[in-house]
Specification:
Distance between the termini: 36 Å
CATH superfamily: Ribonuclease H-like superfamily/Ribonuclease H
CATH class: Alpha Beta
Length: 188
């Protein structure tokens, strides 16, 4: 397991980003009160099937419990949407369902961010962005040095959840994300 960031001070509210990947599942929390305070954890899971899905669910719950207290809470969450056409689409669907169920059990209906939207938000373009370019873009944009592309994605998703927008394309994306189709639905 890899951990990045200075951590979240006690009493801070947070925004959460999850990159649900079988190659390196990553969760980031960013402080609302001080966005330079964040915690990112990347974990690789062994095994497969239901055993792996249970381990993922337990990891998310443990992660939430390590960051949130009765004084701080998750204000919003964003998860990466599915990459349609993936060879592992059924497994990724199961993984996404577990993430959504755990978040639902904790009172959250996350934003679902398409991979191309995530890339555009971070790198300024949605297509043909390599993993190394995402790492560099996160460093240039926010001064955060990460060595894992899953960590870069979850960090960026937490920034999206925070509503962060300073340049026109970020503002456009944040405006588009107000459309209910990007939010996990509470009813049907």
């Amino acid at each position: 397991m890899k951990t990045y960031g200075p951590g979240i001070p006690s009493g801070h509210s947070v925004y959460m980003g999850i990159d649900q990947s079988y190659g390196g599942f990553s969760i980031t929390y960013i402080s609302k009160e001080d966005p330079t305070k964040y915690k990112t954890v990347v974990k690789k899971f062994e095994g497969g099937g239901i055993t792996r899905l249970v381990a993922v669910a337990e990891f998310i719950v443990e992660s939430l419990n390590s960051v949130t207290t009765d004084k701080n809470k998750v204000l919003d969450a964003a998860i990466e949407g599915y990459a349609y056409g993936s060879q592992m689409s059924h497994m990724l669907g199961e993984l996404g369902a577990i993430v959504k169920l755990v978040l639902f059990d904790n009172g959250m209906f996350p934003l679902i961010i398409p991979p191309t939207t995530l890339k555009k938000y971070v790198a300024g373009k949605g297509k043909d962005v390599k993993k190394s370019q995402m790492l560099l873009a996160v460093f240039k944009k926010w001064g955060v040095e990460l060595t894992d592309d899953n960590a870069a994605d979850s960090y960026s998703l937490a920034r999206i959840a925070s509503g962060y927008a300073t340049v026109d394309y970020e503002k456009s994306i944040q405006g588009n994300l107000k459309d209910p189709k990007y939010r996990e639905k509470q009813n049907g």
